[in-house]
């Protein structure tokens, strides 16, 4: 690889997700020169990926260009590249871009490189399951859903049709619950209207979870409500059960305490059961002497510095601190805390304090669960709250406007504007989603 030499800046931010953008906005407004390096050009709103996969929203609506968001700040320099190393004592970062290797000097480094799927040591599952972590993951799953319904409509083999219309979602956290609920809704409110001969009853959606409750992060009344609502909508919820094997056409379920596994067939299996820190967390750990947990997350200091370094910070999903959840508010508040420290607005060494404003998940149309401190809401009120919060946090007026229009079309009507029947969908592992021409909208 060509060595393109070195330049310097005051602050380097790595990533373009929630933590990185929150830090970048603070530095940008303060006029501090910084370089933001990310391996993707977009700021991805991951909580709505399942709506891209189910045709409600387009990728552009949840993934505006990070370059466009920061364009109005002359002190912000956005670079597309993959950060691969750090020389902590020399205060230098190494990144690869356009086939060249660059070195960039900094005074402060803020890392927010997030997490990826974890298969708990069964990495071979990645080849036979669908994931929901990136825009391309969502597009692949969307194509697969369309393919399954189209082929089920035309095949003359009833067994094959049954398998095509069977979906297994592994992991009943918020992502699994939202996706399972949405696939079932899609069957009844969209495909039943547009494909003759297929009804919602022909479509099996199974949500399988190792714990004894759906949405284990909530527990109690909210978990019970989630399970009951999913079942009422026709989703099968299987608890206390691990998936021990997966291939292209099915999975083996093993209930806790049972000797033998049971084979379940399905053409689409989605894995949403765990996360582990992205590779850059491991690099930082090695270069700074910082410990990591079992998921590879950096055990950062209370002020979000890494290892013995006062000039290197890490925030969000790549870190572990005080059992804070891997959620966007933790990343955003961490990003702001670190930016304030770098700017000298917060004294060095100040511990990060997370303000928990609550969490929420949508189950299906008009049903959600919300927890704000000790207040627990379910049903329609929680759903309206979910709608309002997601509208506020989507980046860019245009994206908010289009998303609201799409939600009205999908939730009140029967529209799924982002299924592309004209394309030739491909089976798992063979789609190059980069080739697609999804609208990419710009949020200024
Ligand atoms: C499907 C799904 C649903 C979710 N739903 C919710 C929800 O409802 N509510 C909630 O609060 N949270 C939710 N989350 C979690 C939330 O999205 C994360 O907590 C949040 O994105 C973490 O932000 P982050 O900045 O740490 O990392 P990310 O947002 O993941 O950003 C990481 C960034 O780092 C970049 N990167 C990685 N490695 C490198 C490298 N070596 N060099 C350069 N760039 C790199 C990536 O391209 C990316 O831009 C969900 C997550 C998923 C996947």
From TrEMBL:
Residue span(s) of domain FAD/NAD(P)-binding: 10-335
Swiss-Prot/TrEMBL keywords: FAD, Flavoprotein, Membrane, NAD, Oxidoreductase, Transmembrane, Transmembrane helix
The keyword Transmembrane is assigned to this record: yes
UniProt-listed Enzyme Commission number(s): 1.6.5.9
Residue intervals passing through the bilayer: 377-397
Superkingdom per UniProt: Bacteria
UniProt GO MF annotations: NADH dehydrogenase (quinone) (non-electrogenic) activity
Keyword Ribosomal protein in annotation: no
Catalytic activity: a quinone + NADH + H(+) = a quinol + NAD(+)
Listed InterPro entries: FAD/NAD-bd_sf (IPR036188), FAD/NAD-binding_dom (IPR023753), NDH-2 (IPR045024)
Family annotation (PANTHER family): EXTERNAL NADH-UBIQUINONE OXIDOREDUCTASE 1, MITOCHONDRIAL-RELATED, NADH DEHYDROGENASE
Protein name: NADH:ubiquinone reductase (non-electrogenic)
